[in-house]
Design a protein that fits this description.
Elements lengths: L15 E6 L5 E7 L2 H7 L11 H4 L5 E6 L3 H15 L12 E7 L8 E7 L7 E6 L2 H14 L7 H6 L5 H4 L13 H15 L3 H17 L3 H21 L9 E9 L2 E10 L2 E11 L5 H13 L8 E3 L7 H8 L8 E3 L4 H38 L8 E10 L2 E11 L2 E2 L5 E4 L8 H18 L6 E5 L2 H14 L5 E7 L11 E4 L14 H34 L7 H11 L2 H6 L2 H5 L6 H13 L4
Parallel strand pairs: 7-10, 10-11, 12-16, 16-17
Antiparallel strand pairs: 1-2, 1-3, 4-5, 4-6, 7-8, 8-9, 12-13, 13-14, 13-15, 17-18
Helix pairs in contact: 3-10, 8-9, 13-14
């Protein structure tokens, strides 16, 4: 044990946060306590505090720093901030790569509209966000309902500016055509206000307003308008009726469940919205030293602080000591407050039990899938006579058209799963013309020279191609003196019709004939997934490069239009063709363009035919 236990009595008995560090000064674990001395001493008991990962944590601890605070709320906030800052190995940290689906109203626009958007972390402060939804299908269903009930515009800002007559949505009564002034600003804003109320669950308020408006239209003998309002009322009432069919609760709520087995933990979150169970999310954690209460506290702060809107209550599987402080923290600067409860009986207790069952089922499903993947990787190691278990696989693919804008891309699979954080794109620097072998050699030398320096070599390299590409990879490894990485090549063989066999060929070093796998082979499925992902990634990158080159070529001759203004123009109009068709009034809508820029653009497109 590297920590000097004689220092334990020197710690304060006040509340605060403690940081456990290794010899290199890296933070391994962050925790909080009402009594720092008492809490820290528990880690050094013979039982290791009873938590599975503590015996692995403590031998690495060389130093412990403490920060004193005045309240439990301050301790919770400081602990959360330090976990985000240091990302300790033995703390639970929610990854920001999870995307959320929501409906957004760009209420600052003159003519707001409702869009389905994805965002990571917190949504941008550029509109009103409603959600998140458990699936894109649920969000699209809500958006379709809104478009039928509240006929706001559905076209882009650019289409709105250019339109001279109403589109078909106006004839279908699905838009009131602000583009051509078929409605007043007041009428449109009233629709937006009702849409917001509807999304906030204030259905009855909207219906009351519509009844008043319908009566006023009837008294004014505007019977067609009154009939349309009545149809809207009926649609909303039908929606409310459907929502009440299977009510679990009379409120919006989240129910949480925790399931732990060995080194792994899963938190399941059931979402109940408008009284209906809408779906669930699962969050996985491994090798953490936090107990269930500490994990739950950390999860509540990290997860709910990202959400724009909170449920009215969050149902917990275990009692927490500081529910009031937690509720204050996660509800800070949000329009709706929330409360935390641990139900003991009734429907709410049943929801927490259901969340636990979902966590157990998700755990078992993931473990089964992990076992299948591990078996596939072991079979791959045996079948291809690899020296190492292929835990991390890197695959390269090149893309070019007649040597134009050559690029290469690398995708990575760890334990048989996409590891997008390790994906890399390469612009080819030294090769001219369509030389696939030279391109591959350049990129492999660049990648693995750096991997050597950073001690970041994979277990297996896959190259998309036959024996020639495989030999290029072997040449690169020989030049770099790399002997610890296995290499294989995968290529299609045309006109192969062997019964039960695939047309895919697997090439191994120093083996003359390729290996053919049966079309039902799990190893083949995994290899194809990896190869196809590399191909997709490379093609996408190459298209973007070619697109940028085309745009640069098309606009580079316009006086006064540099890269920045070029980007602004293409973002606003969407394409060079639409920019060419733009009028002077359209161009004046673009921020950042001077009158001389506008004249230069008009003159250029009048004199030249670009497309």
């Amino acid at each position: 044990m590297s920590f000097d236990m004689s220092r334990l009595d020197a710690f304060s008995t006040q509340p605060g946060v403690y940081l456990m560090k290794n010899k290199g000064g890296h933070v391994l674990y962050v925790g909080k306590a009402k009594n720092l001395r008492s809490r820290i001493k528990q880690y050094f008991l013979p039982s290791g505090d009873g938590r599975l990962m503590v015996p692995f944590l403590i031998p690495q601890v060389a130093d412990i720093d403490t920060i004193l605070v005045l309240s439990e709320k301050e301790a919770l906030l400081l602990e959360n901030n330090l976990i985000k800052q240091y990302q300790p190995k033995y703390n639970a940290l929610l990854k920001d790569d999870k995307s959320y689906i929501a409906l957004k109203i760009n209420h600052k626009n003159k003519w707001p509209m409702v869009n389905l958007v994805r965002y990571r972390g917190k949504p941008e402060p550029d509109g009103l966000y409603f959600g998140p939804y458990t699936s894109a299908q649920a969000a699209r269903g809500t958006l379709d309902l809104l478009n039928r009930i509240f006929p706001l515009r559905q076209c882009s800002d650019q289409e709105l500016i250019r339109r001279t007559r109403p589109c078909i949505l106006y004839d279908m009564k699905r838009c009131i055509a602000p583009c051509v002034n078929k409605c007043t600003k007041e009428e449109y804003d009233l629709l937006v206000d009702r849409t917001v109320k509807f999304l906030k669950g204030q259905d009855k308020d909207v219906i009351k307003e519509l009844y008043v408006e319908m009566d006023a239209a009837s008294e004014a003998l505007e019977f067609e308008k009154a009939g349309m309002i009545l149809k809207t009322i009926q649609q909303i009432e039908k929606t409310i009726e459907v929502q009440n069919v299977d009510k679990l609760l009379g409120t919006d709520a989240d129910a949480l469940g925790i399931y732990r087995q060995g080194e792994d933990v899963i938190i399941s979150q059931l979402q109940i919205r408008s009284g209906k169970l809408m779906g669930s999310y699962h969050f996985n954690f491994s090798h953490i030293a936090q107990d269930d209460a500490e994990l739950l506290e950390s999860f509540l702060i990290q997860h709910y602080e990202k959400l724009e809107q909170l449920p009215q209550e969050i149902l917990l599987p275990i009692e927490l000591e500081n529910t009031e402080e937690l509720a204050e923290i996660i509800a800070a600067n949000k329009p709706r407050k929330t409360s935390l409860h641990t139900p003991q009986r009734g429907d709410k207790k049943s929801l927490v039990t259901m969340a636990l069952s979902n966590a157990q089922a998700a755990f078992q499903k993931e473990k089964d899938q992990a076992a299948i993947t591990e078996k596939t990787l072991l079979e791959m190691q045996e079948r291809f006579r690899l020296n190492h278990y292929p835990k991390r696989i890197e695959c390269f693919d090149n893309s070019n058209i007649f040597g134009d804008e050559p690029v290469s891309c690398m995708v990575v699979f760890t334990e048989g799963v996409k590891d997008r954080s390790r994906y890399r794109k390469y612009k080819v620097k030294t090769v001219t013309g369509p030389d696939d072998y030279a391109t591959m050699l350049e990129v492999l030398l660049r990648r693995y020279r750096r991997a050597q320096e950073e001690n970041d070599l994979p277990d297996l390299l896959i190259v998309d191609g036959g024996k020639g590409h495989l030999n290029v990879a072997l040449k690169a490894f020989t030049e770099l003196n790399i002997v610890s990485v296995d290499v294989i090549g995968i290529a299609k063989q045309e006109s192969r019709h062997d019964k039960g066999m695939t047309s895919e060929q697997i090439f191994l070093p120093n083996v003359k004939d390729p290996i053919l796998l049966r079309h039902t082979s799990p190893v083949l499925f995994l290899l194809q997934r990896i190869r196809d992902e590399a191909h997709r990634f490379a093609i996408t990158f190459h298209r973007k490069r070619r697109s940028k080159k085309t745009i640069r070529t098309a606009l580079s001759d316009i006086p006064g239009i540099g890269p920045a203004k070029c980007k602004i123009l293409l973002t606003f109009f969407g394409s060079v063709k639409k920019l060419k068709e733009a009028s002077i009034e359209d161009l004046r809508q673009v921020k950042g363009l001077s009158e001389s820029n506008i004249q230069a653009i008009q003159q250029y497109f009048n004199n030249k035919s670009i497309l």
